[in-house]
Amino acid sequence: MSEQNKKTVEGMYEAFGRGDIPFVIGALDADVEWWEAENFIYADNNPYVGPQAVLEGVFARIGKEWEWFTVTPKEVLDAGESVVGRGYYAGKYRQTGREVRAQFAHVFGFRNGKVATFQQYTDTAQFQKAVTE
Question: Which of 5, 7, 43, 91 could form a disulfide with 36 if both were Cys (CB 3.0 to 4.6 A apart)?
Answer without folding.
Answer: 43
